[in-house]
Design goal:
about 270 residues; alpha/beta; Rossmann fold; OB fold (Dihydrolipoamide Acetyltransferase, E2P); five-stranded parallel sheet; five-stranded antiparallel sheet; elongated
Amino acid sequence: MVSPARTIRTVIADDEPAARAKLQRLLAAHPDVAVVAEAATGVAVIDAVRRERPDLLLLDIRMPEIDGLSALGTFGDELRPLVVFVTAYDDYAVRAFAERALDYLLKPFDAARLAAALVRVRERLELQQRPSAAAVRDLLARARQAGVEEATMPANETGAEYLRRIAVRSGGKVEMVQVPDIEWVEAAGNYVRLHTATSRPLLRETMRHLAERLDPARFVRIHRGALVNLDAVARMEPLVSGDYLVRLRSGARLRMSRSFRAEVERRLQR
């Protein structure tokens, strides 16, 4: 979680006054969120973001003058806040996530749904606050020179410990998945499916981001759409194409691209 001292400076953008009032009311329950501006048009969104430089933009899509997606496209990476779309239309979801939206709230939504989106916002802000890979590598180098053991340093190069459990939210419920129980991970667009012996929950997370947070000594990619727990691998069998068939202890069979073979074999020898 983000430190309680961190205030999430937020801009609300919606052309309906009632919708903005509802967001203000729901956000009041979150002491770490401060609404710094409201916008009723696409042009006003651009002005507010350039003026306030917020952490978070709650953005409607169909707005006067310029729609929300077009307004978002005017911001460079240095100016662009985290974006959660808030709209009554579900047909823009693909474009929204292509624009790196953090979440997509369909109206009408309740306090719990907004709270879940804010959890993702806090997690992403916390990741952004962590030191860069280059900074951590420099810290490790200086620590080694000073005689400090690497085992005392953060587990991965972003400065974060590797995940031990994952909370998967669905339908108002939270399922806790223990990482050692995950046999393999399947990519599904902006989601991943966690395959365990007893369940296959869907997690709103990209494969790339999740892979960075899992211990590479245990998990390895076997193709672009699959990440495997090495402890779950029973054997690998060559195929005529040059790819491999990976058989898991559970009986699951997965295809491994030949371009990933050397790295998988190297990891298995550890």
